[in-house]
Write a structure and sequence with these properties.
123 residues, five-stranded mixed β-sheet, 23% strand
């Protein structure tokens, strides 16, 4: 259930369903991105949190204008240009609930849980 390079569509879906939007700023040549996708994302506790969100994966290193716009978004909003970079967003006003970057296999579940709880006011 990932929206790949479809930020606007994912944002609209999150608004309609009343769920937070998870953004995965990723790159084609990002080794840590692939490791997170293959080893961390499939874990039960991660998938459980993903089920509570709308998921979008935005590539920032392709040689096209869409990737350039996603890279610009990442840099302007978060002052970050590294991948992977993860954001949990409130779709109603596009405010950041939580964000983090890098290869974080052990802390990723806690990052997701905290962001989801904050969105649903469970903290």
């Amino acid at each position: 259930g990932w929206f790949v390079d479809q930020y606007d569509e994912a944002l609209e879906e999150a608004k309609i369903k009343g769920k937070p939007l998870f953004i995965d700023f990723t790159g084609i040549y990002c080794a840590n991105c692939r490791v997170m996708e293959r080893r961390v994302f499939p874990q039960d506790e991660i998938r459980e949190q993903f089920d509570k969100m709308i998921l979008t994966r935005l590539y920032v290193d392709r040689k096209d204008s869409l990737s350039a716009s996603y890279a610009k978004m990442q840099f302007e909003r978060y002052s970050q240009a590294t991948q992977p970079y993860y954001v949990i967003l409130d779709p109603t006003d596009e405010t950041t609930i939580s964000d983090t970057g890098g290869y974080i296999p052990k802390g990723f579940s806690k990052f997701l849980e905290k962001g989801v709880a904050k969105f649903y006011k469970e903290e």
